[in-house]
Write a structure and sequence with these properties.
- This protein is mainly alpha-helical and 74 residues long.
- It is built from four helices and no strands.
- α1 runs antiparallel to α2.
- The radius of gyration is 11 Å and the shape is globular.
- It starts with a helix and ends with a helix.
């Protein structure tokens, strides 16, 4: 499924949190340098974006950012 404009914004915010220039939906969280502190901050950001609780395990347990975004859609 193509990434929406809202999801592109989420990926950009994730990149800022992790401290990289950009993140693509197929990138791996740990592969781009993410750690547990980043996961906690991304979880908080996603909770605000989604308007519902997004557990840190969704970030840590998603093989790629596309999987993380798919879990937010569901």
């Amino acid at each position: 499924m193509p990434v929406s404009e809202r999801e592109e914004d989420i990926l950009a915010k994730c990149a800022v949190i992790i401290g990289v220039e950009s993140i693509a939906e197929h990138d791996d969280f740990f592969g781009v340098g993410g750690d547990s502190l980043d996961a906690a901050e991304i979880s908080e950001m996603l909770t605000a974006e989604a308007g519902r609780d997004v557990d840190m395990e969704i970030v840590l347990g998603s093989p790629t950012f596309a999987d993380m975004l798919a879990s937010l859609r569901g």
